[in-house]
TrEMBL record:
<comment type="similarity">
    <text>Belongs to the RnpA family.</text>
</comment>
<keyword id="KW-0378">Hydrolase</keyword>
<dbReference type="InterPro" id="IPR000100">
    <property type="entry name" value="RNase_P"/>
</dbReference>
<comment type="function">
    <text>RNaseP catalyzes the removal of the 5'-leader sequence from pre-tRNA to produce the mature 5'-terminus. It can also cleave other RNA substrates such as 4.5S RNA. The protein component plays an auxiliary but essential role in vivo by binding to the 5'-leader sequence and broadening the substrate specificity of the ribozyme.</text>
</comment>
<dbReference type="GO" id="GO:0001682">
    <property type="term" value="P:tRNA 5'-leader removal"/>
</dbReference>
<keyword id="KW-0819">tRNA processing</keyword>
<dbReference type="InterPro" id="IPR020568">
    <property type="entry name" value="Ribosomal_Su5_D2-typ_SF"/>
</dbReference>
<keyword id="KW-0255">Endonuclease</keyword>
<keyword id="KW-0540">Nuclease</keyword>
<dbReference type="GO" id="GO:0000049">
    <property type="term" value="F:tRNA binding"/>
</dbReference>
<dbReference type="InterPro" id="IPR014721">
    <property type="entry name" value="Ribsml_uS5_D2-typ_fold_subgr"/>
</dbReference>
<dbReference type="Pfam" id="PF00825">
    <property type="entry name" value="Ribonuclease_P"/>
</dbReference>
<keyword id="KW-0694">RNA-binding</keyword>
<dbReference type="GO" id="GO:0042781">
    <property type="term" value="F:3'-tRNA processing endoribonuclease activity"/>
</dbReference>
<comment type="subunit">
    <text>Consists of a catalytic RNA component (M1 or rnpB) and a protein subunit.</text>
</comment>
<dbReference type="GO" id="GO:0030677">
    <property type="term" value="C:ribonuclease P complex"/>
</dbReference>
<dbReference type="GO" id="GO:0004526">
    <property type="term" value="F:ribonuclease P activity"/>
</dbReference>
């Protein structure tokens, strides 16, 4: 996932989460906020409860790869993806299906 598609600043994370529009599943939570530009950005949050730095960074890399494979970033929203502990217990393909279902829910509910 290219850097222009990422949310990195702490204040941007806060504003998206404070917007309180989200969809969730047992392994992931996706907060969304509408954006004026026609390009989506995604931030990934993996808490310290999930494991040490190696595990957290591996998880972030996997999530970025999943987004790159299934999403085209042509929508107009910013999103924060919070990874839950169940993510580590599932296979890559199950996690990818969960992420696809979250993106479909966002499009159906028209949060963006």
């Amino acid at each position: 996932m290219k850097k222009k598609y990422r949310v990195k600043k702490a204040d941007e994370f806060q504003t998206i989460i404070e917007h309180r529009k989200f969809v969730s599943c047992p392994s992931l939570v996706l907060y969304v906020k509408a954006r004026k530009e026609d390009q989506s950005r995604i931030g990934i949050s993996v808490g310290k409860k999930l494991g040490n730095a190696v595990v957290r960074n591996k998880t972030k890399r996997q999530v970025r790869m999943m987004f790159q494979e299934i999403y085209d970033f042509n929508e107009n929203f910013d999103g924060i993806l919070i990874v839950r502990k169940k993510f580590l217990e599932q296979s890559y393909s199950d996690n990818k299906k969960d992420l696809e279902s979250l993106i479909k829910k966002v499009k159906i509910k028209k949060y963006a």
